[in-house]
Specification:
By secondary structure, the protein is mainly beta. The chain contains six helices and 26 strands. It starts with 6 loop residues before the first helix and ends with a strand.
Length: about 375
């Protein structure tokens, strides 16, 4: 009969059964989620929390900084309805009271969490954090080098030169700036660029060198919380050192003589040097064809009382004398010379005037040079 209710026909209506099933599933899900048995306890990861001073705090106004422990990963234990706990992560906030930090030191700071009222925050993990506060200062120190790990072949043919700093990184006066906590900087007395790679070399080599801070006793100071700054203010932890290698060469000494009488110009024994040559150490290319010029010797300034003259030994940069010679003795053989005094009358015929002022007429009165 038309219009008569038929359960069989309803049960075989696929579309209608899909709709009914979906509605029943939603009702069942809502009963589970919102029912009285849906409460649970869960740990929620809130990520990294950063501790910082309030803008108007005493610590901020006096320049204190948190140098250690400023960041901490936080979890909270929350209990309440399941559907609210799922939303709690974006609602919970962490706070830390830093008002007790008024001077450099180590502090234990409690962490607190706040959220909505329809769930409970049972615990904060960690419940507190240890922080270190200090003033951040800077200090400029002379930078030295340590190349003890570098060697040359045995036999005395080679010698290590003085390490050369990279002047594009270091100040011209070989100083370096370091910034960090006041309590750390107070312990640092010097900074050394240290080559740790042991190696034997025969020519100039560039090495990476670690920057190490030392105390008054030469012990390393932990600079984890510090920064080394180059001449441009960039943070560096190491730099390049050039270690030159020197060789030895016997180098002749030269000089120039002015006003030497013609009779002695070809006499190689008239003027002698002691020593006549020196042994120098330096880069091989620097010593090639190198001669040490002692300067000029003016014979007009030499008399019987000063037949030996000390002339300083000036060497070019990067070259060292193998010993302690700083002067060379220049001896003039005066044994066969004698001094005579003669009368020499000066007249207009044997005196020539040069470079006289324009328009002026000069004359010579007769006189005698003894």
């Amino acid at each position: 009969m038309k219009g008569r209710f038929s359960l069989n026909r309803i049960l075989h209506n696929n579309r209608l059964m899909i709709v009914i099933s979906l509605v029943l599933a939603i009702i069942l899900w809502a009963g589970v989620v919102y029912g009285s048995g849906s409460n649970e306890k869960r740990n929620i990861n809130l990520g990294t929390y950063t501790l910082s001073f309030a803008d108007n705090s005493y610590a901020k106004e006096t320049g204190l900084s948190i140098i250690q422990g400023a960041e901490v990963d936080v979890q909270v234990e929350v209990s309440g309805p399941r559907f609210r706990i799922n939303q709690a992560q974006s609602e919970i906030s962490i706070s830390a009271d830093l008002s007790s930090i008024v001077r450099p030191g180590t502090y234990r700071i409690p962490l607190t969490a706040t959220g909505a009222s329809d769930y409970t925050i049972d615990a904060v993990n960690p419940s507190s954090v240890t922080v270190v506060a200090d003033y951040i200062l800077s200090k400029t120190l002379l930078l030295t080098t340590d190349i003890s790990a570098v060697t040359v072949p045995e036999g005395g043919e080679y010698r290590l030169g003085s390490a050369m700093l990279d002047t594009s990184v270091i100040n011209d006066d070989s100083t370096l700036e370091i910034e960090g906590p006041q309590t750390v900087l107070e312990r640092i007395e010097s900074v050394v660029a240290r080559i740790s790679e042991g190696k034997t070399i025969e020519k100039a080599t560039v090495f990476p060198a670690e920057l190490v801070a030392l105390d008054a006793n030469g012990n390393a100071v932990d600079t984890t919380l510090c920064n080394f700054l180059d001449k441009n203010g960039n943070v560096i932890q190491s730099l390049n050192l050039t270690v030159p290698v020197s060789v030895s060469r016997e180098v002749p000494l030269t000089y120039t003589v002015e006003n030497l009488p013609a009779a002695y110009r070809d006499d190689t024994s008239f003027i002698t040097l002691e020593p006549s040559s020196v042994t120098l150490w330096g880069p091989e290319e620097s010593l090639e064809n190198y001669q040490v010029d002692l300067g000029t010797l003016d014979f007009d300034n030499i008399g019987p009382g000063n037949t030996t003259i000390q002339m300083p030994l000036h060497l070019k940069s990067g070259v060292q004398e193998d010993g302690d010679i700083s002067e060379v003795a220049v001896s003039i053989r005066m044994q066969n010379l004698e001094i005579r005094y003669v009368d020499l009358p000066l007249t207009g015929s044997n005196v020539r005037i040069v470079n006289s002022a324009s328009g002026q007429l000069l004359s010579v009165d007769e006189s005698t040079i003894l």
